[in-house]
Task: structure prediction
Amino acid sequence: MARAPQVLRGMRDFLPEQMLLRQHVLNSFREVFERYGFEPIETPVIEYLETLTGKYGEDEKLIYSFQDRGERDVGLRYDLTVPLARFVANHRNELNFPFKRYHIAPVFRADRPQRGRYREFWQCDADIVGTKSMMADAEVVSVWIDALSAINMPGFVVHINHRKLLMSLAEVAGVPNEQTSTIHRAIDKLAKIGEDGVISEMVSNDIPEDAARRVLDLVSTRGEPGHVFEQLVDRLQGNTLAEEGLTELRSLFGYLESMGADPAHYTLDLTLARGLDYYTGPVFEALSVDANIGSLGGAGRYDGLVGMFSGEDLPATGCSLGLERIFDVIQERNLVGVPPTVSQTMVTIFNEETVGDSLSLVGELRRAGISCEIYVGERWDLRRQLQYANRKGIPTTVILGPDEIKRGEVILREMETGEQSTLARSDLLGVLQARSAHA
RNA sequence: GUGCCCGUAGCUCAAUCGGCAGAGCACUGGUCUGUGGAACCAGGGGUUGCGGGUUCGAGCCCCGCCGGGCACCCCA
Result:
């Protein structure tokens, strides 16, 4: 047998059964996004390379880039946020602000693949451009919670922090600003490597131990958000950056509470340090404590990004869910039941004399809106046809032979039980429609 | 991008020290010309991921590439 080529590293194929599950998830997300007034857009997969560069910091090395036929330097989009900023800059006179859009599409990263980490994966983004109001950030968190709830994602929590608090940490520690990202890297690993690990990570990067302890002590503040805010206000007094961040977080949490967002699904996490360069305000990360698959989504406010393209500053905030990780979790755990096939029924063929009757029946059913197959294989023994239906998971078959045709009847077979009933051909459509209404 | 583990039939795996490439499941056909899942019988299917090297001889040893996984980096 000839060897088929493999797919590219980090990319994968999806079988029909998997696609039906993916589409179910996507439809759920779409529904939730639209419930909040987000509307769909689409942008090209490929952008000019310069559109993508200079936005992601160190991650920039993971951009898939190449030259096209005209020797233009181009790149596959790395996320949907930078293309959105470019989109808004291009169309700002045609948009109604605050602009709310969702975008569900594949993105590409030239990363080394692992479980839950692919080179091509789908992101599901909802963003609001053109308002600094924390209400927009609250909507983003809330839409996330609703989206993940809609697909029964187990044990997920949206962790919330603020970029301005993070930026103030170097000042708190009394170390140079260049050390800020070192501090972020260290505290972000707290849950993974523990307090001692965090301290030694900072110390080994030339941060004095007492400074490291001050930082750790500060970000370890836990408890009811209200109390934490009070403590932080005291301890960070005089630090303008931190005070701004705290003020914003307080109103964000206030809005969330008023909206009735389930507090089990969001939490203040001062150790959350999102890496992307363009974040400027609240930052969010969706994690599942149950599923060991890393982050389900990342989000945050990026007030400067649109301005990088248009000169006109437009504040923005938004969220991004990674479909592949979500899909892997619900597939592994069987969390969402989706029928294995789109076909509701299949009409069988008896022989050359009756094939016309089978075809006209299937045509009628299709015109009436029933998803209906006829067996298109070459050999028409009933055994083969039932086996096909069985393997595909088609719930019923319609058996139509000379006897039935003569009497104006059909046999409706339940594939699960093998139960059969004879009914008038004219009643078949009604019966099938009733069944699909129940499903 | 760095380090490590792995790759044998569609799937899961076996093959002693380097010595004739196998099994179960799946698939195809039949038992069964108006009834799927079960049983029984038979059959097809492999350049052992790809390419090179060492050797009388390589699935096994060495090198490169492709692909999978883990850790790091980072991330959805």
